[in-house]
Amino acid sequence: MEDYAAVAAMYDAFVPMAVTQGLPPIEEPVRHAWISRLLKTGENMLARHHGKVVGHASVIPSPERGDAEYLIFVDRDFRNRGVGTQLTVCTIERARSMGLESIWLTVEALNFRAIKLYRRMGFVFCDVGERERTMMLRL
Hints:
Elements: H1 4-12, H2 28-41, E1 43-49, E2 52-62, E3 67-74, H3 83-97, E4 102-108, H4 112-120, E5 124-125, E6 132-138
Parallel strand pairs: 3-4
Antiparallel strand pairs: 1-2, 2-3, 4-6, 5-6
Helix pairs in contact: 1-2
């Protein structure tokens, strides 16, 4: 949890908040509890620029199912620079080393940039939703 303050600083300044499934949470106490849970229960990857956290990815394993939920957030000023790609590559490698069978995520149906990244990494759609889509990657 030594990275808590740096991760919290990124999410406290994150724009826009609560756009994707209400994440990151708008209310500070709720947001900080969410960050704490992620850092405690997930396998977390951080991207830093001059010591500042500019990206965070996490897999939250479900050992009984052999899979994990994947989430990623990148600071707006660092998008389209390969940060999300590197975080995703590292997270996939970590999930494989954990012995997981698959990872899955939900993405807004109109977030074409994120969908393009996920498809490039091998994720496929699992459902057809109007607002959100679920994607999965078999490891």
